[in-house]
Automatic annotation (TrEMBL):
Residues 551-571 are annotated as: Disordered. The keyword Cell membrane does not apply. This is Aldehyde dehydrogenase family protein. Residues 562-571 have a biased composition (Polar residues). SUPFAM superfamilies: ALDH-like (SSF53720). Residues 61-508 form the Aldehyde dehydrogenase domain. Belongs to the aldehyde dehydrogenase family. The keyword Oxidoreductase applies. Keywords: NAD, Oxidoreductase.
Length: 571
């Protein structure tokens, strides 16, 4: 473990059972700004270093920011065995002491916020995206979030002279595969997972490993050791995902697979987990709806819709389409259009830039063409540009696109609305207004909008902008789709206690729900402690009913077929 601040190269070996170990090679990470400004030369430098063909001067190139060791298959097996051995001892550490580890991490995260943000920016996250990721990390580990976890993990009460306890016990060894588009934030799910009493094996993605390695080497591992965790409690590897997942599935030492990725891959992995006796915790794709009602604060709603373009739309929990009341659709669309057209590309350290290079550029064009062919109106964007905003058929950026679609039925036929779109594209969907009186038409319109939201095959989070208490109540009461609902607030904004990820349908699989990692990586156990008096268990008394009198000695209850006449019992 060797990293320092400033311009020195951050260097992270494999973290195997809490100790540094040499990997089979290095994944070098140049500054994202260097890649954008001088793509060919910078990528060539990385390739020389990664394949051990570098000149001595290459290792001191100022374009480099860090390197992470690639782990071996043998190290993956060793990490699992060490985790299995260490986990029982870590679980025996009192819960409150393990929760102190999270509280200490939260304080350290605040102290080293600028350092962490510099790593995120170097990795390619714009400053605004980095600030959002840091706020989410702070809310995930906030004291209020820890207090909720403490209350949810242990309940005690007295009944029928017995102590009844409901306790959540750790699953054991949890293997975590973070998302490639937000590796640091998704890897942070490992912190409450550890505090729940589990051992953790993290696989930092080789395509973007730096922030994950930095987080665990610099912050998590030292704190974990300070709070009494055995060395095997944590290992941080770096290897391609598919062979790593196969290793986890085959190992008797893996209990949970905590996976971030696409819906199709997640469904396949869920089946494999169940076949191998593993618990699947799936955090998959998102296709969130933002509903704007006739009485909405349009300025606030537009800002929430604009969050679609953070990171060029490559955040799973960003709003993907807006359902806008016909009475305010023109005003809302005009305001949003002006702001979307003003977004510009640039380097990630520019505080005004929110856009990043887009991975699925070809798919973006296909979705746009499909939407226009099906009747959508393209208001702006969709063309490829370079880092300076100049049109280029090989440009890494997509100019932010905005579509307008009239009618829910038409929208339901477009991939731009019904599927997750992982690029800077927002659809404004305007339901057709009814011809009945205003109150009745609004009720019918609300019915249609809520039905549309609930019919979404994805279910990460949904949001509403409305002032009418009746509309707010129906949205929060009747929308069953999604792990999180937001009302009159930032769509992607995070809060203490409120889950950050987790959802239904294609967003979380068959076991999907709002994700509180303290709870998702544990299981509920019920415990009853009697006083030891030897009294027979009285079932009705335990249920809160008064004792039922026994029949008098002189009375015999007749058997079937006998007379009901009482006779004296034999003495």
């Amino acid at each position: 473990m060797n990293a320092s601040s400033g311009t020195a190269l951050r260097s992270y070996p494999v973290l195997l059972a809490g100790l540094p170990a040499a990997g089979e090679s290095w994944v070098h990470w140049p500054r994202s700004s260097a890649v954008l400004l001088d793509t060919y030369e910078t990528v060539a430098l990385k390739a020389r270093l990664d394949h051990d063909r570098a000149d001595p001067a290459d290792h001191d190139d100022p374009r480099l920011v860090g390197r992470v060791a690639r782990s071996t298959g043998e190290q993956a097996l060793a990490a699992l065995a060490a985790a299995r051995e260490a986990q029982p001892a870590w679980a025996r550490v009192p819960l409150d002491h393990r929760l102190d580890f999270v509280r200490a991490f939260h304080r350290l995260l605040r102290e080293r916020a600028e350092e962490l943000m510099s790593v995120l920016v170097a990795e390619g996250n714009p400053l605004q995206v980095s600030r959002w990721a840091l706020s989410a990390a702070l809310n995930l580990t906030h004291p209020d979030s820890v207090a909720y976890a403490r209350a949810a993990m242990v309940w005690e009460g007295g009944h029928a002279g017995r102590l009844v306890r409901l306790v959540r016990k750790p699953d054991g060894v949890v293997c975590l595969d973070p998302a490639r588009n937000a590796p640091m934030l998704t890897a942070l799910s490992g912190v409450p997972t550890l505090a729940a009493g589990n051992a953790l094996v993290v696989n930092a993605p080789p395509t973007v490993p730096l922030s994950t390695a930095h987080l665990f080497h610099e912050l998590v591992a030292p704190l974990l050791a300070d709070h009494g965790a055995p060395p095997g409690t944590l290992s941080v590897l770096c290897a391609p995902a598919r062979p790593m997942l196969r290793t986890w599935l085959a190992s008797p030492h893996c209990d949970d697979i905590f996976f971030f990725g696409g819906s199709a891959q997640g469904a396949e992995l869920t089946r494999s987990c169940l076949e191998h006796g593993k618990k699947p915790i799936m955090e998959l794709a998102g296709n969130d709806a933002l509903v704007v009602w006739r009485d909405a604060d349009l300025d606030g709603a537009v800002e929430a819709a604009l969050e679609r373009y953070l990171g060029s739309g490559q955040l799973c929990l960003a709003p993907k389409f807006a359902l806008v009341h016909p009475a305010v659709a023109d005003d809302f669309t005009e305001r949003l259009h002006r702001k979307v057209a003003a977004l510009r590309v640039g380097l990630p350290d520019d505080p005004e830039v929110v856009l990043t290079p887009v991975i699925k550029r070809n798919q973006c064009k296909e979705v746009l063409d499909d939407a226009v062919a099906r009747g959508a109106e393209l208001l702006c964007g969709g063309d490829l540009v370079d880092v300076h905003g100049r049109p280029s058929p090989r440009g890494p950026f997509v100019r932010p696109a905005l579509l307008r679609v009239r009618g829910l039925e038409r929208a339901a036929a477009m991939n731009a609305v019904t599927e997750e779109t992982f690029f800077p594209l927002m659809c404004v969907v305007v339901p057709e207004a009814a011809t009945s009186p205003a109150a009745a038409s609004d009720d019918a319109l609300l019915d249609a909008v809520l039905t549309f939201v609930n019919a979404n095959r994805y279910g990460l989070r949904n949001s509403l902008w409305a002032r009418d208490p009746h509309v707010v109540h129906r949205f929060t009461d009747e929308v069953t789709n999604g792990g999180v609902l937001k009302v009159n607030d930032s769509h992607i904004g995070t809060l203490p206690v409120l889950p950050i990820v987790g959802g239904t349908g294609l967003s979380g699989g068959v076991f999907g729900e709002a994700n509180v990692s303290f709870l998702r990586t544990t299981r509920l156990q019920g415990i009853s402690l009697a006083t030891g008096t030897g009294e027979p268990f009285d079932h009705l008394a335990a249920a809160g009913m008064p004792l039922v009198a026994r029949p008098a000695p002189s009375t015999r209850i007749p058997l079937p077929g006998q007379s009901g006449t009482s006779r004296k019992a034999d003495t």
